[in-house]
Amino acid sequence: MITDDRWEGVYSFEDSPYLMEILTLLRSKGTENIKFRKGLVKLGRYMGYEFTKTMDFKKVKIETPLESTEGIASGDRDHVYIITVLRVAIPLMEGLLKTLEHSRVGIVSASRGKAPDFDIEMSYIKVPHMREDDTVIVCDPMIATGSTLLKTVSAIKECGDPKRVVIIGVLAAPEGITAIKKELPDVEIYVTKIDRELNDKGYILPGLGDAGDRAFGEPINISLLPLMHNLE
Ligand SMILES: O=P(O)(O)OC[C@H]1O[C@H](OP(=O)(O)OP(=O)(O)O)[C@H](O)[C@@H]1O
Ligand SMILES: O=c1cc[nH]c(=O)[nH]1
Ligand SMILES: [Mg+2]
């Protein structure tokens, strides 16, 4: 896990060849839906594992069949509260739950509009009760302009005052991190890698394209439902 001189409390995993190998697979345009989703699940599992190194654990005394010894038992790991931002956080959450299996989970829908405004349409928030000893992990693979996460984290902060609020994602653009840190300086950010920049359509470069579409397929308009503003 490495820090970045540009911000406080922002960490990436560029020092992990295994995570970089999975990221390379996700970036490649030849990687189809199934492999893309599996890659996100794997990243979630191993980022979750790396994240546990930042958590507090309890010391315990135990008896082996031969003698007494000391060990550790989960402390903070028992009090994790994951917020999953639809759609593409679903496979990342599935991976996180493999190492943070006690987590309670809240679901938020967010859909980003087109440039230059990038309005965020948030029509569904269903979250469990939040406690003071919770570590809240807001899980969204792509931090582009940061607007989705700013809106999501601000909504979540109204639900309580948890021990930590953390964002776990795959890729971030510097622009998005700066926007989030300006409004929410205490929020910690963990991403596989911080990429170079955003293009004029708000996509991360070099990035991996539209992560939701690559994981689940390009959406179509359904006339009976309200028009989601990210469709043509
Ligand atoms: O940092 P921002 O500029 O707000 O952009 C990032 C958001 O864009 C993507 O979601 P999208 O709106 O494409 O929804 P989807 O997951 O359903 O495709 C992504 O999953 C983030 O939530
Ligand atoms: O590069 C980006 C930016 C936003 N959302 C994505 O899926 N990809
Ligand atoms: Mg999308």
From TrEMBL:
Pathway: Pyrimidine metabolism; UMP biosynthesis via salvage pathway; UMP from uracil: step 1/1. Keywords: Allosteric enzyme, Glycosyltransferase, GTP-binding, Magnesium, Nucleotide-binding, Transferase. One of its GO terms (biological process) is UMP salvage. Its EC number is 2.4.2.9. Allosterically activated by GTP. It catalyses: UMP + diphosphate = 5-phospho-alpha-D-ribose 1-diphosphate + uracil. Pfam families: UPRTase (PF14681). 5-phospho-alpha-D-ribose 1-diphosphate binds at residues 87, 112, 140-148, 210. Its cofactor is Mg(2+). GTP binds at residues 38-42. The lineage of its organism: Archaea, Methanobacteriati, Methanobacteriota, Stenosarchaea group, Methanomicrobia. Belongs to the UPRTase family. This is Uracil phosphoribosyltransferase. Uracil binds at residues 204, 209-211. Binds 1 Mg(2+) ion per subunit. The magnesium is bound as Mg-PRPP. Catalyzes the conversion of uracil and 5-phospho-alpha-D-ribose 1-diphosphate (PRPP) to UMP and diphosphate. GO terms for molecular function: GTP binding; magnesium ion binding; uracil phosphoribosyltransferase activity.
